[in-house]
Amino acid sequence: xxxxxxxxxxxxxxxxxxxxxxxxxxxxxxxxxxxxxxxxxxxxxxxxxxxxxxxxxxxxxxxxxxxxxxxxxxxxxxxxxxxxxxxxxxxxxxxxxxxxxxxxxxxxxxxxxxxxxxxxxxxxxxxxxxxxxxxxxxxxxxxxxxxxxxxxxxxxxxxxxxxxxxxxxxxxxxxxxxxxxxxxxxxxxxxxxxxxxxxxxxxxxxxxxxxxxxxxxxxxxxxxxxxxxxxxxxxxxxxxxxxxxxxxxxxxxxxxxxxxxxxxxxxxxxxxxxxxxxxxxxxxxxxxxxxxxxxxxxxxxxxxxxxxxxxxxxxxxxxxxxxxxxxxxxxxxxxxxxxxxxxxxxxxxxxxxxxxxxxxxxxxxxxxxx
Length: 370
What we know:
Strand order of the largest sheet: 1-4-14-7
CATH topology: paralog of FGE (formylglycine-generating enzyme)
CATH architecture: Alpha-Beta Complex
Number of domains: 1
């Protein structure tokens, strides 16, 4: 690690999925029906009935839906390199949050425990890391559209996967005072956003919340199985087309990223949970809205013949962060850039990094996780 600044920049660029779009499969099993959102997302409080801490004897089950488990084909041979190879995986039955953890839910956790997220604490760095002064203040990474307009041709070099975006891709800014309470920076609030997914959450923050409920984070295998909703080899949770008969099915970026967001889906940033149709398992926002943490340690591709490691500690004995897998894409993923609002998509994220477009949901394992 040459410096914290370089490492941080690399991670923040990577987490947005700054790779040119790859061609996707031409066909998959889906449905021609137009599903509707299952509830009034705007009126939803953000807190499911019965929500609260785990008891001494049992986990809290509020807001969970049952996933039956089974065998499925994980990954994609048609997307980005890290999604390969497609391989069969067996997943045991488990339960998962129907929607991403909301600001209202996280606020109850904080009120009950006094927990401070990583973005709210003074950062700690290994002794050998040299850090600019602004990074020594509590804060997090906020999306700031560049002033200059950049034209990203979705057809130019679509088979190329650039590992290092051009230096002009500077839309991530470290903002002191940005955290889950102030998602856009210290001058912003959660007013009217109680039912939006909580963001600026580092790995240990997500696990602390999950443990308060007697739960955990999903493994990458569990997450992808649930997000697919039983559609084998489909590109999206609803089938194989980005839209379903002209209808937008997830909160993503419409237009030329990062210069112009057409906001055809009605949301410039995060949306209240459940504003888009659920998948066949009843999961809301299986893709889009915010990226979601998993417990799985990052590997550059699927190594199907070896066991996959889970993250046990956010940092090692020397303070160096682990790298985990996040899934699902976010409101910043666009058709011309970061086509990662798909179940097979995956990205690395340093466990100590939080951003404006990463949240999480929890699981309850009724049997040992795969």
